[in-house]
Amino acid sequence: MKFLPLIPLAAALPLASAITLAPLAATAQETAQNPAVISVSATGSASVVPDMARLDLTVQRQAKTARAALDANNKAMAAVLAEMKQQGIEERDLQTSNFSIQPQYDYPKSSSGGRKAPKLIGYSVSNSLTVRIRDLSRLGSILDKSVSLGVNSGGGITFTTDKPAPVIEQARKNAVASAIAKARTLTEAAGVSLGRILEISETNRQPPRPRAMARMETAMAADAAVPVAAGENSYSVTVNIRWALDQ
User: Fold this and answer.
1) Which of 7, 81, 88, 129 has its CA 20 to 30 A from that of 61?
2) What gap in Å lies between CA 70 and CA 32, rounded to an integer?
3) Going from the N-terminus, what domains does the chain have, and what CATH number goes with each?
4) Which helix (H) or strand (E) covers residue 10, if one does?
5) What are 132-150's pLDDT values in tens digits?
6) Distance CA 156, CA 146 (A)
7) How many angstroms separate the CA atoms of 54 and 208, rounded?
8) Whole-structure pTM value
9) What residues contact residue 193 under an 8 Å CB cut-off, 6+ apart?
10) What's 164's DSSP letter?
């Protein structure tokens, strides 16, 4: 009968310790490679009184021929442009934003209730002008005069700021402060602490939205400046911040 050689106890203990500690070392390595993190998104806003407005003014004219419609539109738009310059609007603040010529058709019904072939009855010419107004006190009178001179379709009014960088920066700071406060609330409730910041990103920035020219019909019917209220513009910034957690 053969017997296996005996391993001394002193030599066996280091081997057992190595076998026992191996899984623990692997777990610690995985934790180091995949630390616990928290990600928070927050939106911050800041408001400012606008100091500039952008108008979208459109002249539409219809006639039996494209030439006649274009001539009528050109005459009306030339008068609008001349008035804008007379009001002190600089060339850099006047820009043609859209121009189109569209045929107009009539779709008569037949005696049997069906539709006959469409009949060309004329043309429509549309010409749009974007105007930047830097003196808001004159906005109402400029609107009224432009309508009197031939503007018959409203696009919109956008109240904005000539230099929005400072208010956008404040909105960004407010977003970061909100994200930090939210993260602290979450970690305190979970019984952990915020570690170092791993990543900061900005996902979107929202500019002021255009406002519809709801009083266009009033301006066309009345010989008075269009009442306008500028109010405030609110700029919004959304940020994402990711932290490591100290447990």
Assistant:
1) 88
2) 73
3) 36-49+163-210+224-247 (3.30.110.170), 52-108+117-160 (3.30.70.2970)
4) helix 9-33
5) 999 988 888 888 888 888 8
6) 14
7) 12
8) 0.62
9) 187, 245, 246, 247
10) -
pLDDT digits (tens, 9 = 90+) for 174-199: 999 999 999 999 999 999 999 999 99
CA distance 247 to 180: 18
* CA gyration radius, the chain: 35
In sequence order, the 6+-apart residues with CB closer than 8 A to the CB of 206 are: 235, 236, 237
Tokens representing 168 are 């956008």
Alpha helices (H) along the chain = 9-33, 66-86, 139-148, 165-190, 216-221
- The pLDDT mean for the chain works out to 82
Residues in CB range of 64: below 8 A, 6 or more apart: 121, 122, 123
Instruction: For residue 62, give the H/E element and its range.
Output: strand 52-63
What is the pLDDT at residue 212?
A: 47
- The one-character DSSP state at 129 is E
